[in-house]
Write a structure and sequence with these properties.
Structural class: alpha+beta
Largest sheet: 5 strands, mixed
Number of strands: 5
Strand order of the largest sheet: 1-5-4-3-2
Number of helices: 4
Radius of gyration: 22 Å
CATH class: Alpha Beta
CATH topology: Nuclear Transport Factor 2, Chain: A
Helix content: 25-40%
Number of domains: 1
């Protein structure tokens, strides 16, 4: 008779919670690195540079043929990126790597394929987005383009 009692308790016992980190509190959104990476790719594809840099307070920008910038206000960084990408047509943006460097910093590597408007020549470059983790979200702090 005791085996029947044990079997019935096992069948009605609530399931164990999954292992791993606890879910964020209700109403709070944990912004993962992949979410931040996909957001950066989408905003670059749209040439929405204001949206791209909106999460940062000071953005470093490194572009081909130019000296690296000092930290720029988001509005300055957006204008510099807009000028850089002006006249280009995005053909493909592929997220290659999204990696945490340490608990507070991460980077995202993206392959960009584009052409200058009015031409058929395709160009490829690598974009690096540097992020700073602030609480549960990632804020853009650096944009680097390499041919």
């Amino acid at each position: 008779m005791s085996w029947l009692l044990v079997a019935s308790l096992v069948m009605v016992a609530p399931p164990r919670p999954p292992s791993g980190p606890p879910a964020p509190p209700a109403g709070q959104h944990a912004d993962s690195l992949m979410v931040a990476a996909q957001r950066a790719v989408t905003l670059w594809r749209r040439h929405d540079f204001t949206g791209l840099v909106s999460s940062g307070e000071a953005i470093m920008v490194h572009l081909p043929g130019a000296e690296p910038s000092s930290a720029l206000r988001p509005s300055q960084a957006a204008e510099l990126l807009r000028t850089f990408a002006d006249g280009t047509q995005e053909l493909d943006l592929s997220l290659l790597v999204a990696r945490n460097v340490d608990p507070d910093r991460a980077y995202v590597e993206v392959q960009r394929v584009y052409r200058m408007r009015g031409t058929t020549d395709e160009h490829t470059e690598t974009l690096y987005f540097g992020f700073q983790r602030v609480r549960e979200s990632y804020h853009l702090v650096e944009v680097r383009a390499l041919p």
